[in-house]
Design a protein that fits this description.
Blueprint lengths: L6 H22 L2 E6 L2 H4 L1 E8 L2 E2 L9 E6 L3 E6 H13 L3 E6 L5 E7 H11 L1
Parallel strand pairs: 1-4
Antiparallel strand pairs: 2-3, 2-7, 4-5, 6-7
Length: about 120
């Protein structure tokens, strides 16, 4: 793509590619949204996979996409299958660890740095 500072040249790509993609995703896909109260402070997100000894969270999700909201205006939106693959890689490489969490620490999940997850997303491209 050639650089041009005139917005009208970027409009086709921005609207037809980006905005249409997001519109189609939100209207034709299922999205599981998680809000993490501590992520913007700790830099980590907790991804539940078991609760009270039974599979739960990402292990049983049927959503097409996962969205992790943290802070006031930040979120990561990623395909559920892709997230599962990346978490396996991160865990294998010691960048995600199993911890207790959730209400009364009844859940188990992977604790992963947001930056490590984002780095892995970029590497996957």
């Amino acid at each position: 793509m050639n650089f041009n500072s005139d917005f009208k040249y970027d409009l086709q790509y921005g609207v037809l590619e980006g905005e249409t993609w997001l519109h189609n995703l939100l209207t034709n896909s299922t999205v599981e949204v998680k809000s993490d109260r501590m992520a913007h402070i700790t830099g980590n997100i907790f991804i539940e996979f078991k609760c009270r000894g039974k599979l739960s969270g990402i292990s049983t999700s049927q959503a097409d996409f996962y969205c992790y909201k943290f802070g006031d205006n930040q979120a990561i939106l990623i395909g559920t299958k892709e997230l599962k693959e990346l978490l396996k890689i991160l865990h294998k490489n010691g960048k995600a660890r199993v911890v207790k969490g959730g209400d009364n620490n009844l859940s188990e999940g992977l604790l992963v740095k947001i930056t490590d997850l984002c780095d892995q997303i970029i590497k996957k491209q």
